[in-house]
Design brief:
Layout: H1 7-39, H2 43-52, H3 54-79, H4 83-110, H5 112-117, H6 123-136, H7 140-155, H8 160-181, H9 192-217, H10 225-229, H11 233-265, H12 272-306, H13 310-343, H14 350-382, H15 387-411, H16 416-424, H17 426-438
């Protein structure tokens, strides 16, 4: 049976995936607004802000590991309706997330130019990137708090609040961008600095809204400040045991992302950095939908296994694979068709436009694989309890396939789009591993005490 007959699966998948996907899209739209509105300032501004956002990407990937640990553990406890343990898990996760956010804030506030120069040797991009990073880094702590609290709500199947928070953030960010980037209504014209200030203000508002909802309004989880201050040693050991492979896997992925930027940032073709910014935005736009659905699958998987319904989970796994390979084909085709209208939104050079087209053509193929393997490996394998497998798989592909192939292509003088294709090749290759792993069903493990 390829499709489960359990109608509640489709209902829960839709009700969870829609608000998560919409929230991801709105969050993405905040970055898109920055990118497009700064895009009118030229290649240097676009490239500088893109490089400045690499640390935000690093933070998102690392905090995503902590959020993943919260979700995977908490969703299984939610299957047992053990909210007391969930509150303790959330408190542990917030502490770890805040430590990372504080560390990156200090580094980027003190040496922003040094940080940007790790990714590019373009002097203009380094200058504008450092201006942006030196301000936006103060939003990192607020981002960490917000994402941890949203993960807490998702674990108990409250996904809509994340969407509402992100909508408020989008409106705030776009409005302040208009005022501060271009100097409207009497405000100073600050360019990329204005975009950074707008992002900081939006992140602060996000935190205020989600904190009010979680600590004052919500009655399902009933989280309180004392839950964050406290520490359950047994659950801390579980968080470290099961969370470490997730966080390590995210660090591998962060290393891959940063190395991608460094390798592409040193390509000799004109317009590469600006084109990477545009292609990266397209990739993120495509990813928000599949990420929302995979997050929903992860919650359903954790809850189902936590409740001991493994036969039901086998049905769901077959259905999930069909859904995501179909979604991948649709996503790849859509990206290919919209590339020219999307690129036209940016006021970049003709060289950057030509490069961006090549990169997006590559993405239209690799996103098919991304949709299937990334969503299934997280939504099924990792959320199902076999956490270390995904880490090992990512480690092997990143350090033994992706980065070596890209460096070899660069040393042989291959065109930048070929190097870009090498950096994305694992998205297809991992599918062969994923289909075997998923259909062996040896990833279903109950992690609750």
């Amino acid at each position: 049976m390829l499709f489960t007959k359990d109608k509640s699966f489709y209902k829960n998948l839709f009700l969870l995936a829609l608000p998560i996907a919409l929230q991801n899209f709105v969050t993405f739209s905040v970055n898109l607004a920055d990118s497009v509105m700064v895009g009118s300032l030229g290649d240097a501004a676009v490239g500088g802000m893109y490089m400045g956002n690499q640390i935000q990407t690093l933070l998102q990937v690392f905090s995503g590991g902590i959020e993943g640990a919260i979700l995977i553990l908490a969703a299984q406890y939610w299957g047992k309706r053990d909210t007391a343990s969930i509150r303790k898990i959330v408190g542990i996760g917030i502490k770890f997330s805040l430590a990372v956010g504080a560390l990156l804030t200090v580094i980027c506030a003190i040496i922003p130019k040094t940080v940007i120069s790790l990714f590019t040797n373009d002097g203009a991009a380094i200058k504008t990137g450092a201006e942006y990073l030196g301000i936006v880094c103060f939003s990192y702590i607020f981002f960490c708090i917000t994402q941890s609290l949203i993960a807490a709500m998702r674990s108990v199947e409250i996904a809509r609040i994340g969407l509402y928070v992100s909508l408020c953030s989008l409106v705030t960010n776009v409005g302040l961008n208009y005022l501060l980037i271009y100097g409207k209504l009497g405000f100073p014209e600050l360019g990329v600095k204005g975009a950074a200030i707008a992002t900081l203000a939006a992140r602060m508002l996000e935190t205020a809204i989600i904190a009010f909802y979680v600590f004052v309004h919500d009655k399902r989880l009933n989280l309180r400040i004392k839950d964050i201050r406290g520490m359950d040693k047994a659950l801390l050991r579980d968080f470290i045991k099961y969370g470490s492979p997730i966080i390590a896997g995210q660090l591998v992925w962060a290393t891959n992302m940063l190395a991608n930027s460094a390798i592409m940032g040193r390509q000799t073709e004109e317009g590469v950095v600006a084109a990477m910014s545009i292609a990266g935005t397209v990739n993120n736009l495509a990813y928000v939908v599949m990420n929302g659905m995979s997050g929903a699958v992860g919650i359903i998987t954790g809850k189902t296994i936590g409740a001991g319904l493994e036969e039901k989970m086998r049905e769901y796994a077959k259905t999930v694979q069909i859904i995501f390979i179909s979604l991948g084909v649709l996503t790849g085709l859509t990206v290919f068709l919209i590339k020219d209208p999307f690129i036209s939104m940016y006021g970049v050079s003709a060289a950057a436009v030509a490069e961006a087209r090549k990169y997006i053509n590559v993405l239209s193929v690799t996103l098919i694989g991304t949709c299937y393997q990334a969503a299934c490996l997280f939504g099924l394998v990792k959320s199902g309890g076999d956490i270390s497998f995904v880490f090992k798989n990512d480690f092997i592909f990143v350090f033994f396939v992706v980065l070596p192939s890209a460096l070899i292509a660069t040393s042989l003088g291959a065109p930048a789009w070929v190097v870009f294709a090498c950096l994305k090749c694992d998205q297809i290759l991992k599918c062969f591993v994923a289909v075997v792993k998923i259909n062996r069903y040896n990833w279903m493990k109950n992690l609750t005490r």
